[in-house]
Design a protein that fits this description.
Number of domains: 1
Helix content: 25-40%
Structural class: alpha+beta
CATH superfamily: START domain
Number of strands: 7
Shape: globular
CATH architecture: 2-Layer Sandwich
Largest sheet: 7 strands, antiparallel
Strand order of the largest sheet: 1-7-6-5-4-3-2
Distance between the termini: 44 Å
Radius of gyration: 15 Å
Order of helices and strands: EHHEEEEEEH
Number of helices: 3
CATH class: Alpha Beta
Length: 152
């Protein structure tokens, strides 16, 4: 019997325009700032901004190793964007060691004060479903707190 995927959604209103949020969310510096100190992902040294790479929808950009607290090897992700709409959002569907399925949709919407950024996650962990759901929820709550602090 196959369990249904876990779906989580997070949204933040940010006081900067969509182009500035786009630059943040596609830069390695912005991604790292959102994730730390909980996790760190490796990125090839020549990549500074995901949007500046040659994205072929559905093809792996690179393998990223994920470290818990920045130093404990934890997982890997074959970073794969299936959709990218510059300035508006992306859909990432990356094969991961810990997940049967991982889908991360991140969208931007212009609002009167700036931008609404929304993350919608659909995932199926290989193990520890309840613990993984709890961890992913806390991790994305942290990411949105960082977003609101840095861009809010």
């Amino acid at each position: 019997m196959r369990s249904s995927p876990i779906i989580l959604e997070f949204s933040s209103e940010l006081a900067v325009p969509p182009p500035e949020v786009w630059r943040w969310m596609t830069s390695v510096q912005g991604i790292t700032a959102e994730m730390m100190p909980i996790m760190k992902m490796t990125v090839p040294k020549h990549i500074r901004d995901i949007s500046q790479t040659d994205v072929q929808p559905g093809q792996r950009l690179f393998r990223s190793y994920i470290f818990l607290f920045g130093f404990l090897p934890f997982d890997y992700s074959d970073l794969t964007l299936t959709e990218i709409n510059p300035g508006v959002g992306f859909v990432e569907e990356s094969p991961m060691g810990s997940m049967k399925r991982w889908r991360h949709e991140r969208t931007l919407e212009a609002i009167p004060i700036g931008t609404r950024l929304t993350d919608r996650l659909t995932f199926e962990p290989r193990l520890a479903r309840g613990l993984t759901r709890w961890f992913v929820r806390r991790f994305f709550e942290h990411r949105h707190k960082v977003l609101r602090t840095r861009l809010g």
